[in-house]
Amino acid sequence: MIIIAAGLLVGDGMRFGNGCTSGHGVCGISRLSLRGFGATVFYILAGGLTVAMFREVWGVI
Amino acid sequence: MRRNVSAFVAGALFGGGLFISGMTDTAKVQGSLDVFGDWDPTLAFVMGGAIIPMAIAWAVARDRRPLSGGAFPAPRLPEPGRDLIVGSMFFGMGWGLAGLCPRPALASLSYGGWGHWLFLVAMLAGMWAAVPPRARLMPEPA
């Protein structure tokens, strides 16, 4: 269940935000793109919060 | 032909790098996002280490064209929009839940077991499902 939800979110987010970890984080930041920086900040923030909630608070992952 | 060879070499290099650096290790990826728990910040060095040669590559590519034809991709829209923020938040949530992002998910298919295939199928479904709402929010520039 979690894997399916995670896959849906990653695929959805990738299309919506036009990129992924290596796309925005590596290619974007290395050419000093504001979108690259912005995306990286938001996905790391969301990833950190998600792990915090699901692992530290609910203990499901 | 040259294009295919360079794509193959680049893909092999990238996949090998992801594997060696631990980006395909879901527990390690989740550990690197687990800021409030048992935080393992080592993967930040992978990204930092990847950005340096990539920045050099962009500098070399400036005012040049690929040997195999075509052109290097130009930067897209100049500033972050709603699409970028919403998309990145979704992406990060999924990334944290599974410890997988697209490239490592593909790279680890060969040994990751059925869970990784399930993730891939769900990811493709998510990509497909994102098209209509995205078109409404952000009309593609022609």
From TrEMBL, chain A:
Keywords: Cell inner membrane, Cell membrane, Membrane, Transmembrane, Transmembrane helix, Transport. It is a multi-pass membrane protein. It is found in: Cell inner membrane. The keyword Lyase does not apply. The keyword Cell membrane applies. The chain crosses the membrane at residues 33-54. Belongs to the TsuA/YedE (TC 9.B.102) family. PANTHER family: INNER MEMBRANE PROTEIN YEDE, SULPHUR TRANSPORT DOMAIN-CONTAINING PROTEIN. This is Membrane protein YedE/YeeE. It comes from Rhodovulum iodosum. The lineage of its organism: Bacteria, Pseudomonadati, Pseudomonadota, Alphaproteobacteria, Rhodobacterales.
TrEMBL record, chain B:
Pfam families: DUF6691 (PF20398). InterPro entries: DUF6691. The chain crosses the membrane at residues 42-61, 84-105, 111-131. Keywords: Membrane, Transmembrane, Transmembrane helix. This is Membrane protein YedE/YeeE. It comes from Rhodovulum iodosum. The lineage of its organism: Bacteria, Pseudomonadati, Pseudomonadota, Alphaproteobacteria, Rhodobacterales.
